[in-house]
Amino acid sequence: MKRIYLDYAATTPTHPEVVKAMSSYFSEAFGNPSSIHSYGQEAKGAIEEARTTVANLINAQDEEIIFSSGGTEADNFALKGVAFANESKGNHIITSSIEHHAVMETCKFLERRGFKITYLPVDEYGLINPDDVRRTITDKTILISVMHANNEVGTIEPITEIGKITKEAGIYFHTDAVQTVGHIPVDVNELGVDLLSMSAHKLYGPKGVGALYIRKGTKLVPFVHGGEQERRRRASTENVPGIVGFGKAAELAQQEISEEEERLTCLRDQLVKGLLERIDHVRLNGHPVTRLPNNVNISVAFVEGESMLLNLDLEGICVSTGSACSSSSLESSHVLLAMGLSHEQAHGSLRFSVGQWTTEQDVERVLDVLPRIIAKLRAMSPLLKSHR
Ligand code: PLP
Known about the structure:
Elements: E1 4-5, H1 16-27, H2 38-57, E2 65-68, H3 71-85, E3 92-96, H4 101-112, E4 116-120, H5 130-136, E5 141-145, H6 159-169, E6 172-176, H7 188-191, E7 195-199, E8 210-214, H8 229-232, H9 240-278, E9 282-285, E10 295-300, H10 305-314, E11 317-318, H11 334-338, H12 343-347, E12 349-353, H13 360-379, H14 382-387
Parallel strand pairs: 1-11, 3-4, 3-5, 5-6, 6-7
Antiparallel strand pairs: 2-8, 7-8, 9-10, 10-12
The structure holds pyridoxal-5'-phosphate (PLP).
Pyridoxal-5'-phosphate is lined by residues 70-72, 75, 100, 102, 147, 151, 176, 178-179, 199, 201, 210, 323-324.
């Protein structure tokens, strides 16, 4: 049976060209970039080349990119780094109620350390109202962190508008752009952000490597202490093959972004249209237009997301019920609840995310298989019986 992978938002396969670019940095060009001999300089040169490519992808300067172990570390670095460096100015941080756990849990940690966090609400589409940001700022606010696009429902947030507000107020602005970098155009100057998190494995790069963009002049304390790597901002011997892979993935993304964005949008819309036409009592979660080109999230009434997921898996179709991190827990998605969905609607949710190797035939297969699975599950569903 041919397997169909529709979980690109959880992770992407590493592109063969990325694997090829990385391979010599394991055993041939294996030097420590801090060494001054030729092995070391070879590795250092490769890192700097990758830094330029990643910086170009988001219109940043090379020295504003600090490599990390992934998106989670970049988020932790941004929030804790700014919070602890600017404590004397204030202790208030504003974020949204739909952030990834990497931001949410960091905020909860900071709350336990005496910081005050405001979790802004979102509307039914998962959108933050920039006026809410403006209204919530106090003279104690030191940081605002709002994700660029949500990983579960794909809604793209009004970052440029929020950026104008934070700039006027002179407050640092961080965005978690893990789901957008490499998928839609991202320009740190247009967005008006001071800090931006990225992760290579979401754009056909390897796992375990990411980066934080830090605008020149931003005051933050280092997160990992030790050696002098990454301009003393992130100690530890660099993950050279990973960073080289991230660079290659960024280069490929830059070349393919506009064509791929258009192709995936067509596949996404084909899937949404088919699902809404062929299944009763189904709703699209997230904004109908202002959403990632690769994301489809639906709630199906009277069935459990987990049951649909397992039945699809038996048919070789791999999807998600929410974010990858929450797929082993039965807790309702905090994102869907924040958007006003009931626990039942949240439990009946499925996320499809298309990507580079998704075809129209794959989408057609989902549209053929899923209605049958839902009909079978509903026939056994106590939820539907009690509704009748
Ligand atoms: N932020 C968002 C929006 C994500 O979707 C993810 C991964 O799912 C992360 C952060 C964490 O990134 P990483 O897996 O590289 O730690």
